[in-house]
Amino acid sequence: xxxxxxxxxxxxxxxxxxxxxxxxxxxxxxxxxxxxxxxxxxxxxxxxxxxxxxxxxxxxxxxxxxxxxxxxxxxxxxxxxxxxxxxxxxxxxxxxxxxxxxxxxxxxxxxxxxxxxxxxxxxxxxxxxxxxxxxxxxxxxxxxxxxxxxxxxxxxxxxxxxxxxxxxxxxxxxxxxxxxxxxxxxxxxxxxxxxxxxxxxxxxxxxxxxxxxxxxxxxxxxxxxxxxxxxxxxxxxxxxxxxxxxxxxxxxxxxxxxxxxxxxxxxxxxxxxxxxxxxxxxxxxxxxxxxxxxxxxxx
Length: 299
Known about the structure:
Elements: H1 2-27, H2 34-55, H3 60-88, H4 97-100, H5 104-144, H6 149-153, H7 156-169, H8 176-203, H9 209-220, H10 222-233, H11 238-248, H12 254-263, H13 266-297
C-alpha cells in the first residue's frame, strides 16, 4: 500500500497541472502559449538546469556517467525510430526527432524529483540537458536539413549547462541568492509548461490515428524497454537506474512540434503533431506503470 501511495504522490501533481491546462484550453480555444514558450527557452529552462545540476547534491562523476548513458539511450531511440519510419515509409530525417527526443524536461524532471528527491532531479537534469542541446542541434538540422551554429550560440540553455557543469566539476558552491532565483524561475517554468502541455492537447490534432499509434509505441513502449536493457547491461541500481527508466518512458517532446512548424512542410508537422498527442495520451497509462516499476525495483 505504501508504494501505491508514493506512486499517487509522484504522479498526481504532474497530471493535475496538465489537466488544468487541458480544462483551460477547452474553456477558451484561442489561448496563446507563445509567452510560455519564450519564457521557458530564455529563462525557465536555463534556470532549471542550473538549479537542478548545482543544488541536487549529485557529483560530477554521477552526472557525467548518466550523461553518457543518456547518449547511448538516445542513439538506441534514434535507431528504433529509423526502423519504424523505414517500414512505415515516412520521411526518416524530418520525422525522427519525436522518437529520440522525449519530454524529459518539463514532464520527466518533476516526476523524477517527486519520485527520488533532489538526487533524482540531478540525474534527470543530466539526461534532459543532452535532450535540450540536441533540440537546438540535431532536431533543427533534421527539420531544416541544414546546420546553423548560430542557433546553438543563441540558446541560453547551452551556456546554462556549461556553467552548471563547470561549477559541478570544480566543486564550487553556487551563491545562495543565485540558487533562490533560478529555483523560482525553474519551478515556475515547470508549472507553466505542464499547463501549456494540457492546452496543446486541445489545440493539436491527430491526422492519422493508426500511424500515430504505431509511432507512439516506438516512443512510450519501446523506449522504456531500451532503458531497462541498458540498466541490466551496465548493472545499474538505485535512484539513478530508476531515473533512467522513467526518462526513457516519457512521451515525445512538444518542442519537436514547435521546431518542425518553423522548418518542415505542413504534412510533416501534422504527422509530428499527431505522434506527440497520441504518445502523450498513451503515457497517461504507460508512465504510471513505469514509475511503479522504478519505485519498486530501483529505490
